[in-house]
Amino acid sequence: MDVSLIDKAIVFLPLVGFLIAGLGGHRLGDHLSQLITSALVTVSALMSIYVFHDVAFVSGAREHVLAPWLSVGGTMLNWAVKVDTLTAVMMLVVTSVSALVHIYSIGYMHHDRGVPRFMAYLSLFTFFMLMLVSADNLVQMFFGWEGVGLSSYLLIGFWYDKPSARKAAMKAFWVNRVGDFGFLLGIFACYQMAGALDFVNLFKNAPQLVDYSVQFGQSSCNALTLICLLFFMGAMGKSAQLGLHTWLPDAMEGPTPVSALIHAATMVTAGVFMVARLSPLFELAPTALAVVACVGAATAFIAATIGMTQYDIKRVIAYSTMSQLGYMFFAAGVSAYGASIFHLATHAFFKALLFLAAGSVIHAMSGEQDMRKMGGLWRKIPYTYALMWIGSLSLAGIGIEGLFGFAGAYSKDMILEAAYAHGTWYGILAFALGIMAAFMTAFYSWRLIVLTFHGQARGEAQVKAHESPTIMLAPLVPLALGAIFAGFVGHEWFASAANGAFWQNAIFVKEQAAETGHHVPWLIKLLPLLMALAGIGLAIKLYVQRPYIILSIVQRLGLLYKLVANKYYIDEIYDRLFVRTLPRLGGVLWHKVDEGVIDGFGPDGVAVVVQKSGERLRRIQTGYLYHYAFGMLAGVTLLVLWPFIVRLYVFFWGGLT
Amino acid sequence: MAFPLLSFVTFLPLFGVAVIALLPILFPSGHEEKRTQASRWIALGVSILTFISSLAIYAGYDAMAGGYQLIEKKDWIPAFGIAYHKGIDGISLWFVLLSALLSPIAILSGFAVKERVPSFMAALLLLETMMIGVFTTLDFVLFYVFFEGVLIPMFLIIGVWGGEKRLYAAMKFFLYTFLGSVLMLIAIFAMVLKTESADMTQMAHATLPRDVALWLWLAFFASFAIKTPMWPFHTWLPLAHVEAPTAGSVILAGVLLKMGGYGFIRISLQMLPEASTHFAPWVMGLSLFAIVYTSLVALAQTDIKKLIAYSSVAHMGFVTLGLFSGTVPGVEGALFVMLSHGLVSAGLFLVVGVVYERLHTREIARFGGVATIMPCYATLAMLLSLAAVGLPGTSGFVGEFLAMQGAWLYRPAVAAVAALGVILGAVYMLWLYGRVFFGPCDKEDVKSLTDLTLREKAMFAPLILFILWMGLYPETFRHVFATDVVHLVGGKGAV
C-alpha cells in the first residue's frame, strides 16, 4: 500500500468512526458503534506502528498536503499531514492508547445509555489529536488544539445531567481558552515578525529575530522571548501547569476511560509536544526557557504535595499527572527535548494503565471513588492489584542503571540528569524540586495502593466487589507491557549518542546532550532511585504499620496541611477574582451604563421629553406606527417615481426652464 | 443589451409581493385559511427562486478580474448625475448571496406566525428586495433609497408582529437608525453636489478638501455606527431583537447589521480613505470597548435572546476592528466575520425561536436538561454555539482569527485586548448552553418538549452546511473578494 495513503488513513480513520457512530449511532445500536469505532482506531494504531518504524529508521520524514485552508495576507496555510519522528512518536502513543481505551470502554460503559455518543466523542478526540500532531503550520495545530479541547469538554460533560460534570466541563474549556489567548497572540506575533506561520519557514526566519523587539504600548520586549512565552501560556493551559491547572482535577468528573486517554496519556501532553515542536524557537529565547523550566519544576513539586493529601483515587492520579507534566516541561526548559518526549511516551503507558486500573477498582466498588471507604481489596481483584503495582513501580521510576528498569525509571532519570548537568541556576533548581517530587511520587503511589488494597475493608461495597470482565482487563496487558519495557526498548533511540539520527531535526537536539549523562556523579544518578525507595518505605511504614501516626502528623502540620489539602486555595482565589466578579460587573454595566447612562441621555431621555410635552401622544400611538411607515413609503415612492414626474412635467409644460 | 441580472434578482421578491397582494382576488373572503397558506408557499417559492438566480450572479462574476461587474446603468435625474446604476464587486457579491440565502430561511421560520400572514410574508419579501438593492446599487441616491427602504418593512415586522413591548422597540429602532440616516442623507447631498455626480464608482477617486472629508466621514460614521451597531449606539439592538418575531431577528442580525459594515467599506474606506486613517484609533478604541463591554453585559443576561443580541454587538466589534486596521488580513477577516455572523446569529435566533414557540418563554432559568429531550436540536445548537465562540473548523474562527491578525499588525496591544473577547465569548456562550441544554431535566413543561420538525430541520441545514464550508475551505469565499480587498487597502499587511 502507498505510504502516503497510510499516513493519511491514520489521521482520518478515527474521523470516519466518529461520523459513523455520531450520525448513525442510534440506528446502528450500541454494539455496532463500539465495534466500528474500536476497529477503525485499532487499524489506525497498527498502521502507526509501521509508520513509526518507517519514519524513524527507514525512509525518514515526509509531508502530504491535502488541500489549501487559510490564506493569511497572501500566505496559504494548508491542511496537511506532516510525519516526522516527533509526529510518529505521538501518533504511536495517541492511537495505541486510544485503541486500548476504546476497547476498555466497551466493558466500562456497557450499562450507559449514551454508548454510541461516547464512542463517537472518543474517536473525534483521537482525530483532533492526530491533526494537532501532524500539522505543518501553527494554525492547523491550533485547529487540533481547540478540537481536543472541545472533545475534552464534551467528554467531561458526558453525563451532562450531573451539575458537577457540567461545571467541570465548562471550567476545562474556559481555562483552556485563557491559555489559547496566549497561543493566538503567539501566532499573530509570528506572522508579523517572522512573516510565516508554517514551521519550515518560521524556523528558517526565526534566527533573524534574535535582536528584534516588539513595542507593547510604552514598553518593549524581545520578540522571540515574547513569542515563546505566549506559546508557553497556551501550553500551560492545555497541560495544566501551575496557574492554569485548576481544571484538570475537576475534569475527573468525566468517565474514567476519558481520564485515562485525554487527561493523562494524550491531550494534556499536547503542551509538551508544542514546546518540542517549537524547540528551534525556544532555543533562541533563553529567558523563555528559564521560565519554562521554573514553571515546570514548580508544578512537579506543588502537584506532588497536593497528591499526598487527596482521598479521591482519581484525583490522586490526576495530581500525579500534573506533576509528571511538570517534569516534561522542565526537561524542555533545560533543552532536553528528547528526554521530555521520552517521558511523555512512557508516562502515557503507565499513567493510562494506572487510570484504567483505577477505573477497574471503581467498577468493582460500584462507583465509589473515596479511598477512605476502600481497603482490603487485593484478594477480590487480584489482577487489578497486580496491574496497579506495575503502573506504580513505573511511575515511581524503579530500576537499576545499566541493568533493567521500569519504563518511568529511564525517562525520569534522563530528565533529572539533564537538569543537573545543564549548569544553570534553574537547572539545579529543577533538579532539586524534581528529586523531592520523586520522593513524594513514590509516597502517594503506595499510599494509594495501601489505602485501596490493604488493611481492613472500610465500606460496604467491598462485599460485592468483583474483578472486571476480560474486555476491561485485556487492554491493560499491552499497557502494562509498555509500562515495563518501553523504557528499556526506547532509551537507546531517544537518548543515545545516535539520537540525532533518530530525531532527524524533528526537534532541537543539543550536540553534547548525549554526553551529559556520563558526566553526572554516580550519587546523583542513584539519588532518584533512593528517593523513590524511601517514599515507598515511608508510605508502607505509615499506612500499614502505624496508621494512627498519620493523624498526629496531620495535626502537627496544622495550617500547612490544611493549605495543601485545600489545593493552596487557588480555586477559591480564582472564584473570588473572576467567577463571581465578572457576571456582577456585567450586571453593573448593563443596568447602570446601558440602561442608565446611554439610554437615559439617549433615546429614552428624548422620549420622556417628548412624552411630557404632549399627553395626546399616548392616545394616537397605534396609528402612529402606520403613520410613519406610510410617510416613509410615500417618500420612497416619490423618489422612485421622480423621473416619471419630470417626464410628465416636460410632456405637459414643455421643458423645465 | 445583456439580461439585467442584478435588477432581476433585486425585484423578483417584489413580484412575489404583488402576487400576494392579488391573493384576495383568487381567494375571496371566507377562504382566509387558503389565502394564508398560499401566501406562505408563494413567499417561500419566490425567495428560493431568488436564491437560485443569485447563484447566477456568482457564476457570472469574474473573480480574477475583480472590480465592478454586471453593470446596469440608465440615466435617472441627469441634472444631478443621478442614475439607475447597479453593479457588484467581489465584496458586495457575498452580501447579495447572504441576503438571498437567509430570506427563504426567515420565511420558513415565519410559517409559525399565525396573524396577518399574507402581510407578514409580503413584508419579508419587500425587505429582501430592499436588502439586495442596497448591496447591488452603485448610485448614491438610489443607495440611500434602499438603505432607508429597509427600515420600512423591518419597522412593521417588529411593530406589528412583535412581542409585548413592540411599539417601544420599533420606535427606538426607528429613532436611532433614522437619526443616523438623516446625517447620512446630508453627507450624500454634500458629496453629490461637490462632485456633481452620484456615481459611487467615481466617488472613490474624488479628491475632497481634508476638513470636508473629515466632516463627511463623521456624518457617515453616525449612520453606520448605529446600524452596525457599535458601542455606545447599540442599545436599540437587544430591545429590537427581544421584541421582533424570529424571522425578523434572523434578518436583522443576519443582514441588516451587515449594512453598517458594508457602508464602512463602500463609503468610509473606499471614498474617504484619509479620513478613515485619521479616525482609525477612535474606531479601534470603540471596537475594543464593544468587544469587552458587551461580552461582560452578555454574561449578566437572563433572557436567551438578549444574550445573543449582546453577543452580536461583540462580534460586530471584530468587524470594525478588522476593517479599520487597514490591512489585508484585517479586512478579509472583517468580511468573514460579517458573513459568518450572518449565518451563525441567524441560526442562534432560530434556536431561540424553536423553544420560544413551544414554551413561550426565553428565560434562561426556565430551562435545563433540554439535551435529554431534544437531542437533534441540542446538537445543532451546540454546533452553532461553537461557531459563535470561533472554534477552528467553523466559519467563526476564520473571521475572528484574521480580524485579530489585522489588529495585531495595527498595534499588538489592540489584538491582545480583542483576544480577551475570545475568552469571554466562550464564557457566556457555554454558560448559556450549559444552563439550557445540560443539567437535570426536572421541569414538567421542559419534559413535554418535542424534537425538531422537518420544517425546522430544513431551516438549519443550509446554515450548518455553509458554516462548516466556510470554516474548512474558506477559499471558496475569499478568492472572490481577494482582488478587491487588496485594492481597497493597497496590499498592506500582506507578506
Please bin the fraction of helical residues of chain A: over 70%
Give me the secondary-structure category of chain B.
mainly alpha
N-to-C order of helices and strands of chain B:
HHEEHHHHHHHHHHHHHHHHHHH
Spatial gap, N to C terminus of chain B = 42 Å
Largest sheet of chain A: 2 strands, antiparallel
Q: Biggest interface in this structure?
A: A-B, 74 and 76 residues
Helix content of chain B: over 70%
Low-confidence stretches of chain A: 614-623
* Helix-strand makeup class of chain A: mainly alpha
* Widest beta sheet: strand line-up of chain A: 1-2
Shape of chain B: globular
Total number of helical segments of chain B? 21
pLDDT average of chain A, as an integer? 88
The proportion of strand residues of chain A reads: under 5%
Q: Report strand order across the widest sheet of chain B.
A: 1-2
- Shape descriptor of chain A reads globular
Describe, in plain words, how this protein is organized in 3D:
The complex is a heterodimer of chains A (657) and B (495). Helix content of chain A is 74%, strand content 5%. Chain A has 29 helices and six strands. The radius of gyration of chain A is 30 Å and the shape is globular. Chain A is mainly alpha-helical and 657 residues long. Chain A starts with a helix and ends with a helix. Mean pLDDT of chain A is 88; it is low at 614-623. Chain A has a two-stranded antiparallel sheet. A two-stranded antiparallel ribbon of chain A has the order 3-4. A two-stranded antiparallel ribbon of chain A has the order 5-6. With 495 residues, chain B is mainly α. Chain B is built from 21 helices and two strands. A two-stranded antiparallel sheet of chain B has the order 1-2. In chain B, a hairpin with a 4-residue loop joins strand 1 and strand 2. The two termini of chain B are 42 Å apart.
What secondary-structure arrangement, pairings included, does this model have?
The complex is a heterodimer of chains A (657) and B (495).
Chain A: H1 3-58, E1 62-72, E2 75-83, H2 85-108, H3 115-133, H4 138-156, H5 163-194, H6 199-205, E3 213-216, E4 219-222, H7 223-238, H8 247-250, H9 256-265, H10 270-277, H11 279-282, H12 286-307, H13 313-333, H14 337-364, H15 382-396, E5 399-400, E6 404-405, H16 407-421, H17 425-453, H18 470-473, H19 476-495, H20 499-503, H21 513-516, H22 522-545, H23 547-557, H24 559-565, H25 570-579, H26 581-601, H27 603-613, H28 616-619, H29 621-653
Antiparallel strand pairs in A: 1-2, 3-4, 5-6
Chain B: H1 5-26, H2 32-60, E1 69-77, E2 82-88, H3 90-109, H4 117-136, H5 140-149, H6 151-161, H7 166-195, H8 200-203, H9 210-227, H10 236-243, H11 246-271, H12 273-299, H13 304-325, H14 328-359, H15 370-373, H16 375-388, H17 395-410, H18 412-437, H19 444-447, H20 454-472, H21 475-489
Antiparallel strand pairs in B: 1-2
Helix pairs in contact in B: 1-2, 1-4, 2-3, 2-4, 3-4, 3-11, 3-14, 3-20, 3-21, 4-5, 4-6, 4-11, 5-7, 6-7, 7-9, 7-10, 9-11, 9-12, 10-13, 11-12, 11-13, 11-14, 12-13, 12-18, 13-14, 13-17, 13-18, 14-16, 14-17, 14-20, 14-21, 16-18, 17-18, 17-20
